[in-house]
Design brief:
The strands form two sheets. The protein has an eight-stranded mixed sheet with strand order 7-8-9-4-10-11-1-12, with helices on both faces. The protein has a four-stranded antiparallel sheet with strand order 3-2-5-6, covered by helices on one side. With 298 residues, it is α/β, with parallel strands linked by helices. Strand 8, helix 5 and strand 9 form a beta-alpha-beta unit. It has two domains: 188 residues, Rossmann fold, CATH 3.40.50; 68 residues, no CATH class. The N terminus and C terminus are likely disordered. It contains seven helices and twelve strands. Helix content is 30%, strand content 24%. Helix 2 packs parallel to helix 4 and helix 6 packs across helix 7. The structure holds adenosine-5'-triphosphate (ATP). Adenosine-5'-triphosphate (ATP) binds next to strand 2, strand 3 and helix 1. Keywords: ATP-binding, Nucleotide-binding, Transport. This is ABC transporter ATP-binding protein.
């Protein structure tokens, strides 16, 4: 196993260090942050015939239980590959990925995955699709019926449980896919551009729905997206990856408290973070300049 590369330190819009009772400056006590997902020097080389493609090069970061982390980066830089390695659906060429201190060696029941396409089975009803992972895991379906119905209610799909996927809109199909990913109550949700095929208005609705779900049932999440605004709205941290072979160039803490309202997208602070991330992705670390004002390394 390779020695872990130094992961970029998380930067944040930090509040000023609190003053003590007599105005003295107090050091903030360190918060324990156990690593729930730990990626250490992960590297992926695809071999296609005689050619090889280095998709991911020396990526290191960690995620605390309950954190929502978005991954941004240029097209083709290796984001999906990284996510699939975390899901145990793609092998790791070198390095290490650990989930809850256990090395990742293959798919796990404790991880739900969502893709750009809802991948619902067309011949099954919405409810049957949602309960499909329960059947795959050979668990008793009746034990999950209440949970499935409550997820349907939470995502506004009550009344559509017996429809087939082709009878739903694209947004409704993705909502059903969220229910399916959450039905077994996984610890981790990995999402690969889940809303990128939707129109702008439906995407906004989905972001709002996801914020609502997170308020009620927080999970540990990795969320790959091309939308900088979506990343800042949804995530606790945003990781920015370089062009292929990908490494992480910035780990930015998003300071907005939860529950979050999509109207934070109109604030100056939100737009400052978006401008910074856009500069980083379009022009690289030099073009983006320093992280937003008052940034500090916790
Ligand atoms: N199975 C594969 N075999 C060979 N090369 C692959 C395979 N999957 C991905 N690649 C290559 O690895 C690189 C990274 O691909 P990946 O899909 O991980 O990038 P991405 O950042 O998710 O892209 P996008 O943002 O466009 O979805 C690309 O050059 C791609 O062509």
């Amino acid at each position: 196993m390779n020695a872990p590369a130094s992961a970029p330190k998380a930067t944040a819009l930090a509040s000023p260090v609190p003053a003590g009772p007599q105005g003295s400056v107090q050091a903030r006590p360190p918060t324990p942050r156990p690593d729930f997902i730990k990626v250490e020097s992960a590297r992926k080389v695809y071999a296609t015939g005689r050619d090889t493609v280095e998709a991911v090069s020396d990526v290191s970061f960690s995620v605390t239980r309950g954190e929502f982390v978005a991954i941004l980066g240029p097209s083709g830089c290796g984001k999906s590959t990284l996510l699939m390695m975390c899901a145990g659906l793609e092998s790791i060429t070198s390095g290490r990925i650990g989930i809850d201190s256990m090395p990742m060696t293959g798919p796990r029941e404790s991880i739900g995955v969502m893709f750009q396409d809802s991948t619902l089975l067309p011949w099954k009803s919405v409810l049957e699709n949602i309960l499909f992972p329960v059947r795959i895991m050979r668990r008793p379906v009746r034990d999950y019926m209440d949970r499935a119905r409550s997820l349907l209610a939470m995502t506004g799909l009550t009344g559509f449980e017996h429809k087939k996927p082709h009878q739903l809109s694209g947004g409704m199909r993705q909502r059903a896919a969220i229910c399916r990913a959450l039905v077994t109550d996984p610890d981790i949700l990995l999402m690969d551009e889940p809303f990128s095929a939707l129109d702008a208005m439906t995407r906004d609705e989905m972001n709002e729905a996801l914020l609502g779900i997170w308020d009620r049932q927080p999970k540990t999440a990795l969320f790959v997206t091309h939308s900088i605004r979506e990343a800042v709205l949804l995530a606790d941290r945003v990781l920015v990856m370089t062009r292929r072979p990908a490494t992480v160039v910035e780990d930015l803490r998003i300071p907005f408290p939860r529950p979050r309202d999509p109207s934070i997208g109109e604030s100056e602070e939100f737009n400052r973070l978006v401008r910074h991330l856009r500069g980083l992705i379009e022009r690289g670390p030099r073009g983006a300049g320093a992280p937003p004002a008052m940034a500090a390394t916790p």
